[in-house]
């Protein structure tokens, strides 16, 4: 499971250091890592959104995820290993696709 937020590419920038980016060989996806330590910085999805791990944001915010970044949906729910019991919308794939039917 990955808890993350997705942002327009223009809203995410690297403030310090450099990134190394690897493109997926067949899908329209890439992932950027810190060139200094290898930390995952963000992925870029097929919609050109930058997907930033919440754990990274929390570490940069004193160890706590800011409240305005609370989860709003589940993505790729078709691939789940466990069922999640909450009121959030569960998209079977991306947010532009079908939802889990109740
Ligand atoms: Zn680093």
Can you give a write-up of this model?
- The structure is a single chain.
- The protein is mainly β and 102 residues long.
- It folds into two domains: 1-10 and 18-62, no CATH class; 71-102, no CATH class.
- 7% of the residues lie in helices and 28% in strands.
- It has one helix and seven strands.
- The strands form two sheets. Strands 1-5-4-3-2 form a five-stranded antiparallel sheet.
- A hairpin with a 6-residue loop joins strand 2 (19-23) and strand 3 (30-34).
- The model has no long low-confidence stretch (mean pLDDT 93).
- Zinc ion (ZN) binds at residues 17, 34, 36-37, 39.
- Zinc ion binds at residues 17, 34, 36-37, 39.
Number of strands: 7
Radius of gyration from the CA trace? 15 Å
Main structural class: mainly beta
Query: Which small compounds were modeled alongside the protein?
Result: zinc ion
**Number of H- or I-type helical stretches:** 1
| Spatial strand arrangement across the major sheet | 1-5-4-3-2
Count of all domains: 2
Report the average pLDDT across residues.
Answer: 93
C-alpha end-to-end distance: 22 Å
What is the helix/strand order?
EEEEEHEE
Largest sheet, if any? Answer: 5 strands, antiparallel
Uncertain segments are none
Shape: globular
Proportion of residues in helical segments = under 10%
State which percent range the strand residues make up.
25-35%
At a glance:
This protein has one helix and seven strands, in the order E-E-E-E-E-H-E-E. The protein has 102 residues and is mainly β.
């Amino acid at each position: 499971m990955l808890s993350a937020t997705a942002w327009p590419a223009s809203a995410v920038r690297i403030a310090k250091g450099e990134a190394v980016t690897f493109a997926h060989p067949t899908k329209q996806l890439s992932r950027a890592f810190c060139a200094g330590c290898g930390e995952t910085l963000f992925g870029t999805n097929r919609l050109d959104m930058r997907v930033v791990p919440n754990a990274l944001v929390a570490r940069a915010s004193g160890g706590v995820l800011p409240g305005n970044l609370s989860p709003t949906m589940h993505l790729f729910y078709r691939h789940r290993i466990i069922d999640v019991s909450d009121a959030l919308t569960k998209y079977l794939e991306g947010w532009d696709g079908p939802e889990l039917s109740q």
